[in-house]
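Interim report, section 4.2 (structural modelling).
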Amino acid sequence: MRVRFAPSPTGALHIGGARTALYNWLLARGSGGRFLLRIEDTDRERSTPENVEQIFDALRWLELDWDEEPIFQSARGERHAEVVQALLDQGLAYRSTAGQDEIKAWHEQHGNRGFRGEDEGEGAVRLRVGDEGAAVVRDVIRGESTFENALQDDLVIARADGTPLYHLAVVVDDHDMGITHVVRGADHYSNTAKQLLILAAMGEEPPLYAHVPLLHGPDGKKLSKRHGAASVQELRERGYLPEAVRNYVALLGWGNEESQEFFTTEELEREFSLERVSKSPAVFDEQKLRHINGRYLRELELDDLTRRLEDLTGREGLRGAAEISQEKISTLADFWPLAGFFFDGPLDDKAAREKILGTPEALDRLTKAREALAAVDEPWTDEALETALQRVLEDTGAKPRQVYQPIRVALAGGTVSPGIFETLRLLGRDEALSRIDAVLNRMSTAADTA
RNA sequence: GCCCCCAUGGUCUAGCGGUUAUGACGCCGCCCUUUCAAGGCGGAGAUCGCGGGUUCGAGCCCCGCUGGGGGUACCA
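Predicted structure of the assembly:
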């Protein structure tokens, strides 16, 4: 089995594209076949080295490795020209200057019958489509459908300047690469009939097709940039893990009988089958991705998590904070808002200060807590801290949150943080006490002036 | 306009002629609890898009309709 992923070089790897890439990759791995990559660049404008590199990069991030060097169409102009010339020579194609206006005029006269042009010896190259017969698309996912030739316009396969159009190019490239299974987005479904026509003219047999349904946004429309994270690059920036993205994306439009939701790559390779891919479009649900991501994130080894957090934030020395934040975050991006105060100082959350520290009672408890903490002899451990604060609770008769929240706001600046004992410990005695003192000062002068 | 496809709770999904219609996300409640999460338990939420058939029996089969999507370029 030989499969390929052939994105157009737009720079961003769309989530839908990532899914078809994954399906192709799983197919190849599961069958011991080959996964090939090809950039479909019949549109020269978009095919910049930067765009191409970005796609490769996204694929690498997902750990979808491919065989061989990718083939660039632009380097293969002769091959396409050769096929076009052969078709011309055999009278299966002709040159015509007819454009959209002529086609429109034709349909006004001939109704639905496909456009049939004259050989003018110049202009774009059109394939002759007979009025007899039909192209039957056989699709592993969606079954069989028939497209009447009579309704099909003679299709353009090369521009007047001789450069190939997409339909010609894919067909030739797939054939030359020996592709056996073409797995791609359903937006190519209707066009498959055209490609079948080209293949037939070339006298070649079609590969097996599988068109995977498109991904939609919450509004039911095709998923695009305006739906938020629509590309794997964006997902990466938002702190999602590649393995979680893979798991989620595999599940979008595919499920097994057990309704299993977490898969290792090995399980996916073994169990994935095109036959079970859903026929209907799925809606990308970032909340579910978050959930899956959280599960993967919590299972990460601490060193691994730390490395990934450091890569994303560009900071170092995150291990301690990572350790106490791991169970509270769902994405890597959740880390900094939760634990950034360790490194950048307390947040300036006025509302939190007023709500938690706005009363004399709260300041009093914080003062007592400060004293208890100052009395903690080394070692400054979670246990020692808990014991000390436990005593404050007993002495004041206050509820835990009435004592812990003021401390939290003093240390973090806001109302959320990792566990309070862990936070105190990680900050260290001096830093913790000085942050508490700073808040105490600030609040009392505020009270004096008020 | 024409061609093709699709249709199970808000979302993803199981189902393959006989089920109290599966599981998950999300939502709500309770438990746990030092905040927020995580975790545990429970709950609400689907006349299986609608209407006709076929059948003793239809989410599953057939027809029509509606809705949605895709295609219809000298775009990919």
